[in-house]
Amino acid sequence: MPSIKNSVISNLNRQxxxxxxxxxxAFDEEVSSVPNIIKLTLGEPDFNVPDHIKAAAIRSIExxxxxxxxxxxxxxxxxxxxxxxxxxxDLTYNANHEIVVTVGATEAIYDSLATLLxxxxxxLIPTPIFSMYGPDVLLNGAKPVYLDTSANNFVLxxxxxxxxxxxxxxxxxxLILNFPSNPTGVTYDRKxxxxxxxxIKKTDMIVISDEIYSELTYNQKHVSMAELLPEQTLxxxxxxxxxxxxxxxxxxxxxxKRLVEKVNVVHQFATTAASNPAMAAAAEALGTPAGKVDxxxxxxxxxxxxxxxxxxxxxxxxxxxxxxxAFYIFAKIPAKxxxxxHSFALDLAKKGKVAVIPGSIFGLGGQGYVRISxxxxxxxxxxxxxxxxxxxx
Length: 393
Hints:
Layout: H1 6-9, H2 14-18, H3 23-32, E1 38-39, H4 51-62, H5 75-89, E2 99-102, H6 104-116, E3 122-127, H7 133-139, E4 143-148, H8 158-168, E5 172-178, H9 190-200, E6 206-210, H10 225-228, E7 233-238, E8 251-254, H11 257-271, H12 276-287, H13 289-315, E9 328-332, H14 341-352, E10 354-355, E11 357-358, E12 369-373, H15 378-392
Parallel strand pairs: 1-10, 3-4, 3-5, 5-6, 6-7
Antiparallel strand pairs: 2-8, 7-8, 9-12, 11-12
Helix pairs in contact: 4-12, 5-12, 6-11, 12-13, 13-15
């Protein structure tokens, strides 16, 4: 077994040396060894990919669609993406010049940041938020500036954004928004987004608007930041959550031509292009009436699970911000644990046999909360509620 010299390890990228594994995955692995545990940890839909979408991937293979696609993605999937955005969110993009297909929305995040950032730049990140953004900022030599939104019902306010821009003294280049939110399930309505857009428009900042959960918005119509501020927004989305296609790894970036062309340069050097069969499946998912029906059926099932889980947890004494999207509930832990969400989550896993994710993993404002995924089956969710109730007693 080869062993690397310590002196070589010490010369690695300093940012990489300072980083550990993905904290969500690490905690999930830590508690997965508990016998008979019910896992409500990962954002992994329990649905299978619909048959007509799988058939599109199979056709791609059988028809020997095995050569390099254009770096920005096959024209078929780019056209399906533009049709999807126009139909759902009244957005207009040119499939030839304003769309880049990436290997999941995770690559879209990295490519966008790599395109925009220089050393010394700052990126404003409202928290609690998905734990990938900050490390990606650091890997690109910039500084993440975290804005705790827990006192504002977990949404960024115009006052908070104005102060952050002023405090940055011109260094803030990017604002990251993720809505509906992972981990809180909270989203922004048109009024809130309009107020933020008016402030950003006075600057040269770019918004990276990660709207991967947009199709899972329950009590209002999702409004995209790209509608309100198209000239300063890179819109990120994909099929992982809307069509239960996490393993297919198809995301995309949409935005102004001159900016997206530069994102595509980073993408080319990172991956060349996404997989052809996966793109064929994504084109079927996003570009057909059947694909739209698939999402609606999944959304109805998620909403039913959300309504049940939300009410049961409220009955057990948890405090929960309004989870109007995605498939997560962000629950405040019982008072006797204080804000030690990690201890609570470990106790619940080991004694209650239910796995959830500590809220502090998601940054400032997450302390004292846990994220509970209802992307699991109804049977599992009901069994988990019974176990949580027994554990609390």
